[in-house]
Every structure is written in C-alpha cells, then in structure tokens.
C-alpha cells in the first residue's frame, strides 16, 4: 500500500502497471502454478504472522525495563510442554507434505507430461543470442532476434513500449492446441521462459529437453532467456504470437511460400551489390552483437573482422573446397569452444553468401570477391 | 563454575611490526587478520554491487557494457561468500573457540597461519583480471556469474582461469582451517567439557568444518575438470565429446547447497548465545539445536538438485528433490522454536547485538519461508533464475548471514578490543541496515514474479519502478555500512573500558577472562563442572 502510494506520487520516467504477482496465466500449467503459488504464499504468510506475533509479544512483554524476573527453564519439563513443543513440528510436517506436498505433486506431474495428447511439435534451438524456431512437420524454420534498436539501448532514442521484449520473427502458435516443445542449444545453456505459459526450461547443447504449452487465448506473449549465456543474455527475448487456427494455417502457407522463394533464389546468380545489401542486413542482426557494427570486435573477447587474416585470406582451394579455418569455413562450421558458432544450420545459403561477401568488402576489407549461394549449397 | 588462571602472561613471539602478523601462530592474531580481511572484502564486494545497482537504476545501458556487468555480479558473489562471510566466521572461530572451550590456542597453529595467508593471494587472483584488462591484457574477470556453469565457462576469457586458481587456494584454506577446528574441538577441550556441554557456537562450527571437508574437494574437482576442458582437450562438460554439460551443475551444487549452511551454521551458533545473554535466561533446547544442526547438515548434501530443476530432470528426481528440500524446514523450525523459546519469559534488553540477532531471525524467516515455496518443482519453474530467487537468497545470506555476523561483532567486539563501542551509533547502524535492506530486496520479490530474469544489465520498462526503489535501498544500505566501519574502528582505537563480563547475562568461559584477553590465554587449563 505504502509502496503503491509512493510509486503513484513520483513522476516516473515511464509509467507502467506495477505487478505484485505472476502475469495473467495463458495456459493450464501457468494457471495451476499461479494457484499453487497463491496458496503457498497464504500459508507462509500465516506462519510468518503467527511466529512473529509470538516473538513481538515476547519482545514487548518480557523486557527488563518492565521489571520481569527471567524464567529459568531450558527445555520442555512437563508432559504438556512436551506436547506443545511437538505440535509446531507436526504442523510443519503436515504443511510440507500434505497441504503443500500434494498439490505440488500434481503440478509436477502436469508440468512433466509433455506427450499425452500433444497436437504438434516445435523445436527450439538457442544460440548466442537468438532463438531458432523449427516446425518439423511443416518443414519451416527461422531465426528470431531482438528487434529493439541499439540507439534505444544506448539511451539515444526514446524507448518503445515493448523495449527489449520485441523480436523480428515471433514464434507463431495456434490457440487451443497442445504444443510439445523440444529444446536444444548450439553453444552454451540458454533457458526458454515465457512467464504467462508457466514454462521455463533449459536449452542444453547436445541434449534435447522438453516442455509443453496449450495457449488458451490469442495474444502476444513475451519472455526472456533466463540462464546467463554471455554478454547478450539480457538481449535475448522470446515472443510468441498465439493466433486462431485459420490464421495459423494462413501464416503457415505464407511462410512456406516465402521460404520456397528464398530456396529458389539460391540457385540464381546473384550480383555482388544484392549480396552485399542482403549481407549487411544480416550482419547487423546477427554478427554485430559480437563483432560490433564497426567490425572492430571487442579486444580480448571477440576478434575484429576489419583487417582480419581470416577474412582477408582464401576461402576456397583450387578444387573449390573449403579452406580449413578459412573465412567461409568459420562462418559455416564455427570454431569449437568459442562463441563463434556454426551457422550452416541456422542460416540459408543466400544468408551465408551475403554475410561472407559483405564482410570481405566492408570495414576497410577490399577482397573484391564474392560467394554465390549455389556454392554454399554444394559445400554443405 | 570455572577457574581460569590468567595471571601469567606470555610475551610475543619475538617478531615485531609486519613480521609479527606474517609469522604469527597466535589464534587471536590470526582471528583478527581474518576479521579485518573479511571487513575489507565486504566493502570491495559491496562497492561492486553499488556499480551494478547504479546501472540498474534505470532501463538502458548507462555506465557500463554487459561484459563488465556480468563480471561485477559474478565477482561480487564470489567475494561476498568466500572472502567476506566465510572468513568472518573463521575469524570468530579462531578468536572464540579456544576461549570458549578453555584451550590455550588452536591445535595446529602453523597450519592456522597458512590457512589465513592463502586468502590474500586468492583475492588478488580473483580481482587482478579487472586491473589487467585496463592494460589491455585479457577481457577482465570471470564473466559467467559466480556459478560459472559450463559450457559458458569453457569459452569465456582468462578471467575464468584466474578464478579457478583463486577457488583452489580458497578451498585449500577452508579445508585446512576446518581440520584445525575439528582437531581443536576434539582434543583441546577443558577437562569436564563433554560434547554435550560444548558451546553452541563451537557445535555450529564443528558441523560446518565437517561439511567443508566433505564438499570443498568436490568443487575443487569440478573446477579442475573445467580447467582441463579449457586447456587440455578433455570433454567432461561437452556433449560433442561425450561429456555432459549438466554434470558441472550437479558437481557445483553438490558443493553449492551445503555451502549455504556452511555460511549460516556459525551464525546460528552465535545467535542462541546472544539471545540468552540479553534475555538473561539460559539457552532453550540446547540438545534439540545440536540435533537440528546435524540433521540440516546431513540433509543439505542430498538436496542440491533443487537448484537445477529447470534442466529437465526425470519426474522422480524432481519429486525427490522437492520433498527432501521441504524436509529441511522441519529441523529449521526446531531452531526457530528454540530461539523464540529462549527469549520467552526472559528479561530482555535491546543492545546492538540483540537487535541484530532479532532482526536476523525475522528477516531470515522471510528467506526461509520463500525457500519453502521455491522447493515446489512446478512453481520453481517460475521463480528460478528470476529476481524472486535473488531476493530469497539475499534474505538468507545477507539477513541470515551478514546481519548475524554483525550481531557477533557487536557481541564480542568489547571482549576483543577491551573497549565499549558506541551503542548509539550501533543502534543507528542496525535500523538503517534493516530498513534499507528491506527497501532493497522486498521489491525484488515482485520483480521476479513479474518476470524479470536475474543477471541482465538492462530490463523492460515494466520493471522500472521496482528497480529504482531497489537501487535507492541498495545505496542507503551500502552507505550505512560506512557507519559500521566507523563504529568498529572507533572501538578499536579506544572507548570506555570493557569489564571481563561485558554483558550482564552472558554465559561461558570467554567472559571469565579480562577484556581484552591476555595474548596467551589459558596458562592453566580451566575445569568445567
């Protein structure tokens, strides 16, 4: 109450609703979690109130200044006292294993049941610092990254309403369907978290983890990565757009058409200008987080691309195969045990060709050469 | 009850100046060095988190980049746990255990000197990468949070290597210190002091020492495996090479969860002494508290999995870790019951140690009860890695740990220095600390529930208000500790002389000695009847 009064009185830079509890649940799991949480909070507050009421009573009554003579007892003496010292213990055991233990048991069962009656499967791959969403049944996959401009983060521009909780390509899911979610990662451990779904599960490199969501009403649900995954940890939002079944079908059709067009364009011969343009867009979205917009990198952490031996070295040998640790090899296969990941599974042929061409001809690099998407395709 | 021959006084070892402190084997000198080191590191760790709270004052990146932010939060935690809280407890142990059990010194005095002198190099190793980065060497300190989970810690910069060696040194120091405490308590008790007459502070430390010996080697093993993964081509934590990234978390938390109690047991050992002294009433349920310590100690090493419930454990494992974690609330409720029964029908006065002890009980109660809620594996999915957890463990480790240490400092400072501290300033220190602490961490519970992840340098706009309140609270909390420093330094430099029995209701052998106690304490061992 007091906090509420203070926060309304002060002219904050940005006004938003103060939240005192979980956000409105959108799935059965989130609803269950909220109910369990509320119940536990009431129980613990009651314990707190009772215990500290006793303590505060004692503090006010049993003071030396009131001239009380201190008692001498050091433990329960009579049978009645033994009884009254065991009572709190028994109450606590009952609260732990019955009052809280039984609902908690059912919540856990529910949370873990990822497969029963699942309508569809989504595969989510975390990497520094983006999420890749894949619809295995539909043959669609795309990468989702932070859409907030750097200028807002650096306080040069006014921050939008969904500052840091907005992405370029949200995950689109139908409402009313039980979605089984498979999680993995390409580099370090990330955690996929959407508070309104009651879902938080780690994405672990080399392992598959599962969770599930059954979204009950359309809307846009926002969350963030919850496991410290390096410098971009705070900039790895999760946005899920829940739509009706027909809208979902329509979105699928559009996405498939777009993806087919892009695959077809990989076969074309691209001009360097077009590749550069495409590459620049991707560079800003994906590479600039580490190598910086200037291509200078971060000394000691992320190597510079400007003047780099790798970028300014050969990519392909005489037979047209990848030069090991050459520029194209690095982009496609990454460098193990570093933040430089293999992009061949997350980027399309056009994307890789664009980024490589862009990097070789920017930041003061003047290689003058280019890679065609068709070459990337054959090198996979 | 006790007889202590304190008339004879031994001279110093012959060393003067710096060498006195470098070569000292005297338990009081070493205890003092531990406490001074701890206080210094408390301010180092505090200064770091002031920078972090300044960055989090408003959304957007204002004063630092995310790399530095990650380094500051990780090093803050490592410094506070390993270099502020643990050395403070060890400092008390060195000073007080020999006095309380009627021993002339610690059993292994040269080992004792070593245990302390490993700490400053460890601190240097941990903090040096910050300075090296200024000269363009490396990318700064460990930037993975204090848990340094693999595989992030496999790919991070050389700050990790420095931290690994720092942890090795800290671990060796802790294990040696623990062995010393175990041997001292087992062998040097005054005649007549059976284990069931041992002061609770000594009991708390004895169990802490056993736990340290049990779990520190596991941490040492884990960081050594990490070092091998980083530099020697092994794949303990890499699935690509047949390893398991989650193995690191199991090993880490097998150490990390008991560590919570390692930090808290010495404090819970001091608490009943203080409550009893200022309620002028004997400790209630001595045996029950000793057994509760043992039960918590044993349970603490079998519940580590509740820290990693979102990694995708089997349902059976989730249920096991959930129920075993909830079970810890039972022995804890015994401790709380005994603390409250100790003050019940006493004749209380409220000097600074008592205020801090009572404040510790109330605020640690919030930490404990939120811990009970966190145990639920399904609800934990919502709390885990959010600010709810940050608030929870600061209520246990700051309120339960640091405020308990402060209670101990005020309780024993007159005994150690021979001077009374300024009661008025100490009371100010308590109230400022208690209010600012709640202002800092209470909003973080709500931030966590609303969905703010921990360890992010920048946040969505809906979290602005609570972060601002929390930062203001943190600045006041930080500034109030300067008052603590002032009170302590003032007390060391002088003040009204303290009598042997500083507090009217205090019980125990240490109060039979003059304040400060002579350099060599018991020339003739006292007898306990």
From TrEMBL, chain A:
Broadest EC class assigned to this enzyme: translocase
Membrane topology recorded in Swiss-Prot or TrEMBL: Multi-pass membrane protein
Name of this chain's protein: Cytochrome c oxidase subunit 2
Chief site of localization: membrane
Record keywords: Copper, Electron transport, Heme, Iron, Membrane, Metal-binding, Respiratory chain, Translocase, Transmembrane, Transmembrane helix, Transport
Domain Cytochrome oxidase subunit II copper A binding: 117-254
Cofactor: Cu cation
Bilayer-crossing regions: 40-61, 82-105
Localisation per UniProt entry: Cell membrane; Membrane
Molecular functions per Gene Ontology: copper ion binding; cytochrome-c oxidase activity; heme binding; oxidoreductase activity
Function: Subunits I and II form the functional core of the enzyme complex. Electrons originating in cytochrome c are transferred via heme a and Cu(A) to the binuclear center formed by heme a3 and Cu(B).
Catalytic reactions on record: 4 Fe(II)-[cytochrome c] + O2 + 8 H(+)(in) = 4 Fe(III)-[cytochrome c] + 2 H2O + 4 H(+)(out)
Gene3D superfamilies: 1.10.287.90, Cupredoxins - blue copper proteins, Cytochrome c-like domain
Protein family according to the UniProt entry: Belongs to the cytochrome c oxidase subunit 2 family.
Cellular component terms (Gene Ontology): plasma membrane
Location of the Cytochrome c domain: 274-363
Organism: Sulfurimicrobium lacus
Domain Cytochrome oxidase subunit II transmembrane region profile per the UniProt entry, residue ranges: 14-110
GO terms of biological process kind: ATP synthesis coupled electron transport
Superkingdom in the source lineage: Bacteria
Cofactor note: Binds a copper A center.
From TrEMBL, chain B:
Subcellular location: Membrane
Gene Ontology, cellular component aspect: respiratory chain complex IV
Membrane-spanning residues: 30-52, 72-95, 116-142, 162-188, 200-228, 260-279, 291-309, 321-343, 355-375, 395-413, 425-446, 466-489
Record keywords: Copper, Electron transport, Heme, Iron, Membrane, Metal-binding, Respiratory chain, Translocase, Transmembrane, Transmembrane helix, Transport
Pathway noted in the entry: Energy metabolism; oxidative phosphorylation
Catalytic activity, as annotated: 4 Fe(II)-[cytochrome c] + O2 + 8 H(+)(in) = 4 Fe(III)-[cytochrome c] + 2 H2O + 4 H(+)(out)
UniProt topology in membrane: Multi-pass membrane protein
Pfam family, one: COX1
CDD domains for the chain: Cyt_c_Oxidase_I
First-listed, main subcellular location of the protein, grouped into a coarse class: membrane
Leading EC class: translocase
Entries under InterPro entries matching the protein: Cyt_c_oxase-like_su1_dom, Cyt_c_oxase-like_su1_sf, Cyt_C_Oxase_1, Cyt_c_Oxase_su1_BS, Cyt_c_oxase_su1_dom
Domain of life: Bacteria
SUPFAM superfamilies: Cytochrome c oxidase subunit I-like
Domain Cytochrome oxidase subunit I profile, chain residue ranges per copy: 15-529
BP terms from Gene Ontology: aerobic respiration; electron transport coupled proton transport; respiratory electron transport chain
Record GO terms (molecular function): cytochrome-c oxidase activity; heme binding; metal ion binding
UniProt EC number: 7.1.1.9
Gene3D superfamilies tied to this protein: Cytochrome c oxidase-like, subunit I domain
Protein name as it appears in the record: cytochrome-c oxidase
Native source species: Sulfurimicrobium lacus
